[in-house]
Amino acid sequence: MNTKSINRLVDATKLAMIVLVACLLVSVIILLVSEQPGVAISSFFLGPFSSLRRIGNILEGAIPLIFTALAVTLIFRAGQFSMISEGAFFIGIMGAMIVGIAMPLPPGLHPLVALLVAGVFGACAAAVPALLKLKWQVSEVVTSIMLNYVIQFFVIYMVNYHFREPEASSLASLKIAESASLPGLVPGTRVHLGLIIALLFSVATWFFVFRMRAGFKIRLVGDNAQFSHYVGIKAPAVMVMAQIIAGAVAGIGGGVEFLGMYTRFKWTASPGYGWAGIAVALLARRNPMLVPLSALFIAYLNVGSGIMARSSDVSSEIVLIIQGVIMLMIAADALLQNWRQRLIVQNATA
Amino acid sequence: MGVFEHILSFQFVAMWLRVATPLIFTSMGAVICEKSGVVNLGLEGIMLSSALAGVMGSAFSGSLFVGVLTGMAMGLALSAVFAYFHLVLKANAVLCGTAINTFAGGFTVFMLEVTTGEKGNSSSLKSLAFGSWDIPVLKDIPFIGDLLSGHNVLTYMAFLMVGIIWYLLYKTPLGLRIRAVGENEDAINSVGISVKRVRFIAIMICGVMASFGGMYLSMGYLNMFVRDMVAGRGFISLAANAMGQATPIGTMLSALVFAFFDGLSNILQLLKIPSEFVQMLPYAATIAGLVAYSIQKTHSTRKKHGLVRV
Amino acid sequence: MEHSALRMENITKVYPNGVVANRDIVFDVNRGEIHALSGENGAGKTTLMKILFGEEKPTGGTISIDGKEVRIHSPQDALELGIGMVHQHFMLVPSLTVAENIILGIEMRKGLGIDYPKAEQLVAEVGNKYHMYLDPKAKVKDLSVGQKQKLEILKVLIRGAKILILDEPTAVLTPQETEELFAELKHLRTQGFTIIFISHKLAEVRELCDRITIIRRGESKGVFSLDGITDEEISQRMVGRDVQLSVTRTAAKRGDVLLSVEHLTVSEEGGKPLVDNLAFALHAGEILGVAGVEGNGQSQLVDAITGLAPYDNGSILFNGKPIRHNHVKDIRESGVGHIPEDRMTLGIASGLSVTENLIADKTGWDSLFNRFGMLDANRISSFSEEMIKEHTILCQDGSVSIASLSGGNIQKVVLARELSSEPKLIVANQPTRGVDVGATEFIRKQLVALRDKGCAVLLVSSDLNELFGLSDRLLVMYGGKFAACFTDPSLIDEQTLGRYMLGLERQDDDEIARSAR
After folding, report:
1. Which of chain C's residues have a Cβ under 8 Å away from the Cβ of B192?
2. How many beta carbons lie within 10 A of that of residue B250, not counting itself?
3. Which residues of chain B lie closer than 8 angstroms to C72, CB-CB?
4. Rounded distance, CA A111 to CA A182, Å?
5. How many whole angstroms separate alpha carbon C283 and alpha carbon B165?
6. Alpha-carbon span A29 to A301, nearest angstrom
7. Does residue A90 contact residue A121 with C-beta atoms inside 8 Å?
8. C327 near B CB under 8 A
9. What is the dihedral of CA C441, C444, C446, C452, to 10 degrees?
10. In terms of DSSP bridges, do strands C219-225 and C211-216 run parallel, antiparallel, or are they unpaired?
11. How far is CA C251 from CA C440, C447, C448, C460, in A?
C-alpha cells in the first residue's frame, strides 16, 4: 500500500462513516420524538423508493443541488468563501422568469435565452462581493450573505410589483409562456431536461477544473494565493473569475429549476438550495464528478423527510439537522487521522 | 411627522437602542473570538437556538431565571460543539459556523413543532420576558430621563458588557492570553499554555454573549420565538466587529450605526416605499458600511506611504 | 562530579507522512555542562528537542530527568520539569510589551486584573541577576534581534528552567552579538544551569561547548568530548564522508550587465528606508553574493527585483527594461527566476502534486497546452519525468503530493521549476537553508553551472561558507545600504566580514560604487 491508496481508503471510510452516522442520527431522533417510530423510519428511508413518482422526486430534487454545489465547488477551489450561490440561484430564477413572461420566442430558443439571462444575472450577483474584495479587501463572507438577503427582497419586489398575477390570492407571478418550459424526461414523474443539463455541467466543470489552463490557475490560487502571485499569476483576477463563473452556474441552476418545475414564480423566500449546495459540495470532496452522487444522496434525505412528515408526526426539518451534522463531520479533517497516521507508520517502517 | 422629525424623537432613540441591543451583545462575542484568532460564523445559529431555548425554559419552568439559564446553556452547548470540531477535529471555521447555522435552522423549528405542534412561532407557550427599567431619580430628570431611563434591562446590560469585555481583554490575564493567541500562537505554546484551551474559553464566552443577543430577541424585543427570527443579525454583528477592528468600543459604535439603519427602516414604512426595499435596508447598509470602512482603510495606508510607488 | 541531568533513551519518531525523523537515539547530558547537539539540517536534531520539550510525542523510547523516568506530554510538563526551550524563530507577541511577554501564563494578579508594576519589577530583577537587561515597557516589535533573544532566554529562566535548549541561536546574530550570548551562557553555566546547544557551526561549538552529540539521518553517531575529536572526524560522522566545505569552481567569465540597479529605495510606512539608495550592477556569468544579518534590507531588495514588492525610488533595469511591481509574469518571461527564502509558504503549492508544481510558472507556455486551453497531459508528464530525473528528485513519480517530499527534495523541485524556464538571472535567497548536505551540494553545483553558462546569479545567504565558496563578488548589506563590496572575496576572512555586517566598518562610498558596478 502506498500513501495515495492509504489516503483513498481512509477518505472512503470517512465518507461511509458519515453516511452511517447520518442515518443513525435520523433513526435516533425519530425514536426519541415519534409516537409511531416504525412508520416514521420506514417512510423516511424506504419511502423515496416506494413509487416511480417518488424516485422521480429524488432526481428532480437533486437537480438544483447539483448546480449550486458546482458553484460552491468552484468558489472553494479558488480559496474563497463567498456564500453567494444562494442569491445567484434566486436571481437566476428571476432572470428566467422575466424572459419566460416578457420575451416571446420560438420553442427551442426560448429556454436557451432564458437560461442565458439567468446565468448573466447570477454572474452579476456573484461579481459584487468578488469585486468588493478585489478593490477594497472587503471580506466576501459577510458581504455575500448580506447580498443574499438584498437579492431575496429585490426579487420578491420585482414579482410583487411588476409581474404579479392579479387574480391569485397569494404571491404568484404571471404564467410563463409554454415555449419557455423545459420538457419532461420521464413520464409519470416531474423529472425534466434539467437533469441532463446538470449532468453535462458536472462533467464540464470537472473538465474545466482539472484539464483546463484556467482551472489549473484556480487550483493554484486556491491552494496558495501567495505562491500563485510569485509564479506570475494574477491571483485577484483569477479569484474574481472563479466567483463570476460560479455565479453564472448557480444562476443557470435557478433558471433550470424554475423552467423545469414551475410555470409561475411562487416563492415567498429564497429556497435555500445555496446553503444545501455547500453540504453537497463538501460531501463530494469538491470534486465536480462526485457532485451528482452527493446531490442525489441529499435529495434522497429531503424526499424521505418530506414523506415522513406527511405520514407521521416527525417534521421535515430533521433534514436540516442532519445536513448540519454532515457538514461538521466532513469539515473535520482530523477525523480518522490517528488511523491514517498508524497506517502510514506501518507502511514506512515495514 | 416627517421622517426627519421622527428620527429626532425619543421614541426613535428608544427603538434604536432596542434594535442595537442584540447586535451589541453578539458583536462583543465576535470581538473576543476574533481577538483569539477564530472567525465564528455560527453566531447566527447560536442566537437562534438560544432564543428558542430561553423561551422554552421560561415557559416550562415559569421562571425567567431558569429561562435565561436554559438559553445560556444552549449557547454554551453549541459553542462547545463548534469549538470541538474546529479546534480538536481541525474543521475549517467558516464551514463549522455554516453547519451550526444550518443545524440551528432545522433544530429550532423541529423542537418548536415537537413541543407546541406549531412551526411558525411559540405564541402558544407562556414564555416570560425581560422588562424595562425605570431608573429611580434619573427618570424624573427632563430630557436626560426620557433619553436614558426606561429601556429594557438587557439593553443596559449590553452596554455594561462593552465595558466588561474591554476590561477582560486589556486588564486581565485571560485577556492577555487571548490577545497573544490571536497574534502569535507560538508565543502561547512556548510558555506551556494550551492554545486550544484559550480559544475554547474565548469561543465559550462568545457563545454566552450571542445567547444573550438571541434571548433578547425572543424575550425582550418580542415576547415569543418566531422561526428564523434572527434574520441575519448574527452576520451583521460580525460586520460590526470587522468595522470596529475587533476593539470593544469601535465595535459597539459600529453596531450602533447598523442598528440605526435597521431602526430607520421601521420609520420608512410610513413612506410610500415598497416594503421590500425597506426590509432590504439593514442588509444593504451593512454592505455599504463595510465597504466605506474598507475604502477608508485602503486610502489611509496609501496616504501613509506618501511616496509614489512604482 | 558527572551527574546525568537528562537522559533520552531509544527515542524513535515517525511522522504522519512516513518520514522517520529519529531512530533509537540515545542522548545523555550532564548537569552543569554546555552540550552541543550537531548534525546537518534535517538530521533530526530539532525533532529530538521538540520531543524533549513536549511539542512532539515520540513513537517510542523514554526520557529521564535526574535519573527518574518522566513523561513529557506538553511544553507545560517540560517547563515544570525545568526544561526550557529557546526556539530558532522567536515566539513573542509583537504588539505586547517585554513585561507582558515575560509574564504570559504566569501573570501576577491584583484582584481580577494584572499587577503591572510587579511585572515590571520582575523584569528588572531577572535582568540584573542574569546580566540581560531589557526595558519592561518596550514593545517587542521595537526590539532588536539580540534583545528579542535575551527576552526568550529570560522567559524560560523565570519559569524555573534548569536545562536550557537553544536551537541554532546564532543563526540570526552578528559575530559580536554571538560573543555576548556566549558570555551570558558561560555565566549561566557557572550558576549551575545545563545548556543544550543545537548548532552545526563547528567553530562556535568548539568555543562554547564541553561535549558534542552527533546526529545523522535520524540516528545518533556518538557522543564525544570536544577535546578529543577533530573537525574532520566530526564532519565525517555528520555526513559519513569528507564534507566538501568549498565548491570547486573556475574563475568567472563576466559578460555584459544584465541587471542594473540605480538609486533604489524602499521605505517602510514610518518613512524609514529599508533599502537606501542602492546602486549596483550584475553581469552575465557571475555570482554576486549578498551578505548581511537578516533584516538589513535583503528581503526588500529581493522582493523589489523579483517584482513581488514595490519600491519607492530609483530604477531596476533588466536587459534594459524596467522591472515593475506586480508585473511578475512579464518579469519572469523576460528571464528572471527566483528561489524564495521560504519555500513552504512562497515556493510551492503544498496541496498539489510534484508535476503541478513543476509547471506552475508555465501557465503561459503554449507548448504545454493545446489550442483550447487544455492541459496537454502527455507533454506535461514527459516534461515532469525529465525534470525529476535531471534533478534527482526523490519521489515515486510526478503525481505524488509535493508535501510528502523531504525539505531537500522540495527545494530541488523549486530549483527544477525555476531553471527549466531558462532564466538569464536567478535570484537565490537562502537556497540551501534547511536542506540536507547531499541536496545542498547539488544545488550549489547547479548555481555554478548556471553561472558558467552565462547566467547571472544573485545569491543572498546567511551561510558564510556558501558565500565564500560561491561568490565571485561579495556585497555586504547593513542598514539598507552597502557597507562593502569585495571584488575578490577570497582575500577576507569571516571575522572581517562580520565587522562589515555589523556596521563597525565601512568601505569608502566611491570604492563601493566602483566595485558594485
Report:
1. 74-80, 105, 159
2. 16
3. none
4. 7
5. 60
6. 14
7. no
8. no
9. -130
10. antiparallel
11. 21, 14, 11, 20
A12 domain residue, yes or no? no
Disruptive mutation site among B181, B191, B196, B298 for chain C (greatest number of C CBs within 10 Å): B191
Chain B stretch 197-256, residues whose beta carbon is closer than 8 A to a beta carbon of chain C: none
> Which domain covers residue A200, as residue numbers?
64-286
Interchain contact B179–C (C-beta under 8 A): yes
Q: Residues 23-42, chain B: which have Cβ within 8 Å of A? A: 39, 41
Q: Taking CB atoms and an 8 Å limit, are C375 and A213 in contact across chains?
A: yes
Residue C478 Rama label (left phi>0; alpha psi -120 to 50; beta): beta
Strands of C273-283's sheet, edge to edge? C273-283, C257-267, C313-318, C321-322
Cβ <8 Å between A327 and B290:
no
Chains that touch C (3 or more CB pairs under 8 A): A, B
pLDDT tens column, C177-215: 788 899 999 999 998 999 999 886 777 888 999 999 998
Amino acid identity of residue B127, one-letter, is S
Reported confidence tier of residue A62, pLDDT bands at 50, 70, 90: very high
Q: How many domains does chain A have?
A: 1
Q: From chain A, pick out residues whose CB is under 8 angstroms from the CB of B294.
A: 132, 136-138
Beta-strand relationship, C4-14 and C109-110: unpaired
Q: Is the pLDDT of residue C242 over 60?
A: no
Domains in chain B, start-ordered, CATH in brackets? 3-298 (1.10.3470)
| Residue A19 falls inside a structural domain | no
Chain B residues with beta carbon closer than 8 angstroms to that of C78: 192
Question: Which residue segments constitute the domains of chain C, with CATH numbers given?
Answer: 4-239 (3.40.50.300), 257-335+423-516 (3.40.50.300)
Q: How far is A133 from A141, CA to CA, in rounded Å? A: 10
Does the CB of B2 have a partner CB in chain C at under 8 Å?
no
Q: How many residues does chain B have?
A: 310
Specify if A118 maps to a domain.
yes
Chain A 231-250, CB below 8 Å of chain C: which residues? 231-234
In a domain, A178, yes or no: yes
pLDDT digits (tens, 9 = 90+) for A165-209: 888 888 888 888 888 889 888 888 899 999 999 999 999 999 999
Which residues of chain C lie closer than 8 angstroms to A4, CB-CB?
A: 399-400
